[in-house]
Automatic annotation (TrEMBL):
Protein name: TIGR03083 family protein
Residue runs in coiled coils: none
High-level lineage: Bacteria, Bacillati, Actinomycetota, Actinomycetes, Micromonosporales
Location of the Mycothiol-dependent maleylpyruvate isomerase metal-binding domain: 3-89
Gene3D superfamilies (alphabetical): dinb family like domain
Domain of life: Bacteria
One of the Pfam families matching this protein, by short name: MDMPI_N
GO MF annotation terms: metal ion binding
Length: 202
C-alpha cells in the first residue's frame, strides 16, 4: 500500500504546473512542492545530512524537518517524482508509528496537495480505514495529540467506520482524516454537535 501511494504521489507531482507547485498547501506554510519535498526526504535523504540538520536546528525535529523539506523542494518536480518511484518500496519501518504512520503520512499530505488545487481526493477506502484507526489508536505520535479525539465520536458517512463515545462528528472519511490531523479547511465539511469542540481543540 505504501509503495503504491508513493508511486501515485509521484504521478501527481509530475503532473502539476509550476503555479500549482508554488500554491500554499494545507500543511502550515509549506507550498505544494515543499510537501512533496518532505515526502521525498522521508525516504531519499541521507541519514548523515538529516542528522546534521537536526544538530543545526538546535535538535528541534520539526524545524529540521521543515528545513530538509525546503532543501529537497529545490529540485525539479520531475526529479522528486523519480526519487519517490525509486524509493517506493523502501522497507524502513519508523519507530512507534510503524507502517500505518507512513501510510497515513502519504494520505494526509496527498490531501494537503490536492485540496488547495481543487483536485479529487482519490483515496482508497481500505487504506483510509487503516489511517483512521491509526489516528485514534494512541500511537499517532506527531499526528494527533491524544486529547484531540478524546470524548468525541467520529462517524464516516461513506465508510463502514466509527470510533469513540460522546458528541458526534460526522463526515466523509477524508474530512475526518484531515480534521483529526488538525486541518481547519476540512472542518466545514463535518457536521454534528462535536464539531465545535474539535474546532476549539485544533
Amino acid at each position: 500500500m505504501i509503495a503504491e501511494e508513493r508511486r501515485r504521489t509521484a504521478d501527481l507531482v509530475e503532473s502539476l504546473s509550476p503555479h500549482q507547485l508554488a500554491t500554499r498547501s494545507l500543511c502550515g506554510a509549506w507550498t505544494v512542492k515543499e510537501v512533496a519535498g518532505h515526502l521525498v526526504a522521508a525516504v531519499a535523504a541521507s541519514g548523515g545530512a538529516a542528522l546534521l540538520l537536526v544538530v543545526r536546528s538546535g535538535f528541534d525535529i520539526h524545524r529540521a524537518n521543515a528545513r530538509l523539506a525546503a532543501r529537497m523542494a529545490r529540485r525539479p518536480a520531475g526529479e522528486l517524482a523519480a526519487l519517490l518511484r525509486e524509493h517506493a518500496e523502501d522497507p524502513f519501518k519508523p519507530p512507534i508509528v510503524g507502517y500505518p504512520g507512513q501510510l497515513t503520512d502519504l494520505q494526509v499530505h496527498g490531501q494537503d496537495i490536492r485540496r488547495p488545487l481543487g483536485l479529487p481526493h482519490d483515496l482508497r477506502p481500505d487504506r483510509l480505514r487503516i489511517s483512521l484507526d491509526f489516528l485514534v489508536g494512541g500511537r499517532a505520535v506527531g499526528f494527533v495529540p491524544r486529547r484531540r479525539p478524546a470524548g468525541l465520536r467520529f462517524e464516516a458517512a461513506d465508510l463502514d467506520w466509527a470510533w469513540g463515545d460522546g458528541p458526534v462528528i460526522r463526515g466523509t472519511g477524508e474530512a475526518l482524516l484531515l480534521g483529526l490531523t488538525g486541518r481547519r479547511a476540512a472542518l466545514d465539511d463535518l457536521s454534528g454537535e462535536g464539531v465545535a469542540e474539535l474546532r476549539r481543540r485544533i
